[in-house]
Write a structure and sequence with these properties.
The protein is 31% helix and 33% strand. The chain contains 14 helices and 27 strands. Helix 5 crosses helix 14. The longest helix is centred in the last third of the chain and has 26 residues. The protein binds adenosine-5'-diphosphate and magnesium ion.
Length: 461
């Protein structure tokens, strides 16, 4: 059977009947020659079309009803492949699961850049991509009211779509009252047998990840020493004291924080203790006793569960902390690849390198050569070790949590050149790559999840 991916253009049927005129190379194959009807599958919708001979090779002419049923646009190019001798599947239909704020940005016509980039990538890949959230699904009818881009009229619009083939889960940052609904919806997705999901892990629990990775011999030496603390456990202050005595500087992090919002650096200084955190700007506070310092930290961390972690003596540039944010993604063959490893340089007096805390981002080589005088040989050596660490880490994460399509991994280098694993992210932002002016990797970071979706659904060449 002809199972290579091919492209078709959607046109509107002049009569009421929908028809298909197959591409020339497929028409030439005898098994398709004498067929007068084919089924077209789009997501969970199925329609029947007549096979016609015309000069418009590779076109599907859809009547209004079928156009609506398949959620397609006139002049849209889509990928297709034969699922069986009489069934053509078009797609993949990719539902991008996002938070309500993202949908609002589309509704107002002021989309977040990442949504726009993904839509541009979907056009280049001939895939059908739409943005959906917790209120988008009509379960009885298995239809989705989602936002997509109408390239004919150049506008975002709310439109009905078939249930997708793939859910690309980008749904981070739900408000606390929406969290249980998001969890329920993810659970419902699990019950749809035909649905493929990736990155449905909402976020990683920092303590759990630490514990799990610590059981991997190849990774444990990259993990900073870490202990668990809770607000309700009196022993926690003992844990923090013990870590401070050992390392002088520790990081306290809520187990479910992101964007550096729940991260505090705590240091022993000559006249007591110093904490540093980011709240609109870097803030430093001095406290005289450990009890005061820990109480203040607890007040700032809105979580009752957190970790205390050895502070890494990270490489600095003009007294600014540095780390790296690697983006790993799977490609159209389903293989992992390192898309980019931008270097982040923290803002002045800031203990975190998060981009939301105003760090500056640079290309890996550019930073190491220009700012740190690394030789080409040093860079190659470092790159090899980072590569090994990244691949080992994604392998371990997948062994523990299941398959992912992308992961963001924070790594640091200390002043002795030693590498450290800081954390991994289930909804990696692409802003670090954008800010490092790596245009090629930035574009690629939006195309790869679509290519991976094509791989998952059999749209491959
Ligand atoms: N143990 C540590 N030593 C030194 N810096 C750290 C440490 N842990 C975190 N940081 C800094 O804080 C930033 C945010 O911490 P991270 O664990 O990545 O939490 P988040 O989920 O908020 O991004 C890191 O990118 C790094 O700059
Ligand atoms: Mg981080």
């Amino acid at each position: 059977m002809y199972n290579e991916k091919f492209n078709v253009t959607i046109k509107n049927a002049t009569a009421t009947d929908s028809t298909i005129c197959l591409p020339a190379d497929i028409r030439a194959k005898k098994e398709y020659k004498y067929r007068d009807q084919l089924k077209i599958i789009g997501g969970n919708s199925e329609i029947r079309v007549d096979v016609v001979e015309s000069d418009n090779f590779g076109t599907i002419n859809l009547n209004e009803n079928h156009l609506h049923q398949l959620g397609l646009y006139i002049n849209q190019q889509v990928s297709a492949c034969f699922q069986s001798i009489d069934k053509i599947k078009i797609g993949p239909y990719i539902g991008v699961f996002v938070n309500i704020g993202s949908l609002n940005s589309l509704m107002k016509g002021t989309p977040y850049k990442r949504l726009l980039e993904l839509i541009k990538a979907s056009k280049e890949e001939n895939a059908i991509v739409y943005f959906m959230s917790i209120r988008s699904i009509n379960w009885p009818e298995m239809r989705i009211s989602a936002y997509s881009y109408n390239f004919n009229d150049n506008l975002w619009e709310l439109k009905k779509f078939p249930f997708p083939d793939v859910i690309y889960d980008r749904g981070g940052g739900f408000l606390p009252n929406q969290m249980p609904v998001a969890k329920y919806i993810r659970h419902q997705f699990d019950n749809v047998e035909t649905l493929i999901k990736f990155n449905s892990q909402h976020y990683f629990n920092k303590w759990e990840v630490y514990q799990r990775l610590a059981s991997y011999e190849e990774i444990v030496s990259y993990l900073p020493d870490t202990l668990y603390c809770t607000n309700t456990n009196d022993g926690s202050i003992g844990n923090i004291m013990a870590m401070l005595n050992k390392y002088n500087t520790v990081y306290l992090k809520a187990i479910l924080g992101s964007n550096g919002k729940q991260v505090i650096r705590l240091m022993k200084v000559h006249c007591g203790y110093e904490i540093n955190y980011f709240k609109n700007k870097p803030v430093t506070e001095n406290l005289s006793t450990i009890e005061e310092a820990v109480n203040r930290a607890k007040e700032l961390l809105s979580s009752t569960s957190y970790i205390v972690q050895q502070g890494i003596d990270v490489l600095q540039y003009k007294e600014r902390n540095i780390d790296m944010r690697a983006l790993m993604q799977r490609n159209r063959k389903g293989q992992w690849q390192i898309v980019a490893v931008p270097v982040r340089i923290a803002a002045k007096n800031c203990s975190i390198t998060s981009t939301s805390a105003g760090s500056s981002c640079y290309l890996f080589e550019e930073a190491l050569i220009n700012l740190f005088d690394y030789s080409v040989k040093d860079i190659t050596k470092l790159k090899n070790e980072i590569t090994r660490l990244l691949y080992t880490t994604v392998q371990a994460i997948e062994a523990e949590y299941g398959t992912f399509g992308e992961l963001g991994i924070d790594i640091a280098i200390d002043n002795n050149g030693k590498l450290w694993f800081i954390e991994c992210n289930a909804k990696p932002g692409k802003d670090t790559i954008f800010l490092s002016k790596n245009e090629e990797a930035y574009k690629k970071s939006f195309r790869l999840p679509i290519q991976y979706s094509q791989y998952l659904t059999g749209f491959t060449n």
